[in-house]
Amino acid sequence: MIAKNITDLIGKTPLLRINNLRGSGDATVYAKLEWYNIGGSVKDRMALYLIEYAEVAGRLSRNKTILEATSGNTGIALAMIAAAKGYKITIVMPESVSVERRKLIEAYGAELILSPGEKGTGGAVELKQELLTKYPVRYIDIDQFKDPANILAHYETTGKEILEQTNGEVDVIVVGVGTAGTGVGTSMRVKEYNPDIIIVGVMPKLGLSIQGLRNPEEPYPTQLFRKESFDEIVEITKEVLPKTFEVIQRTAKEEGLFIGLSAASIMYVALQKAKQLGKGKTVVAILPDDGMKYLSTSVYD
Question: Which CATH code of 3.40.50.2300, 3.30.2350.10, 3.40.50.1100, 1.20.120.910 fits the domain covering 6-37+157-300?
Answer without folding.
Answer: 3.40.50.1100
